[in-house]
Amino acid sequence: MGKKQLTTKKRRPGKFTQAIADEILEWLAKGETLSSYCRQPNKPSARTVRDWKTELPEFGAAYARAREDGGHVIAERMREVAASGSDKDVQHRRLQIDVDKWLLARWFPHDYGDRQTVEHQGGGSFQVVTDMEPLRRSRFGSDTDSENGNGSPTATPSDSAS
After folding, report:
1. Most exposed residue of 23, 25, 30, 129, measured as fewest CB within 10 angstroms of its CB?
2. pTM here?
3. pLDDT tens for each residue of 1-50
């Protein structure tokens, strides 16, 4: 029988150092992802970096700033992608831009999200209705055609007589 060869797995650094932190922050500020950084040889795992964010508040704050800077770089890069290339690779560019837009909207909803905030100041009050069925019932009474699921009012003879 042959000898089994032992493979030694290179250990990833698990101890926080300022040099590694600076490298990570620079990487993120360029619009790159944490996972792409951590896939490189001899880099800490993404889990380790996330642990550092929670255990070291100063690093967590710097991480958030670097991510935000990276988000702006991604937004600028989207414009360059849209302007470059030929007509034959337009679908690929559209996909790149759509993915980046989607990520930016989730990572930075305040800056890049689709949601709009409506502020109400002053006296008075209002009610936001998200389900139209209670409004229909209050407006048209219980004579709605709910059996077919459309919630539209059922016509009565007095409605059509005018």
Report:
1. 129
2. 0.58
3. 555 555 545 556 689 999 999 999 999 999 999 999 999 999 999 999 99
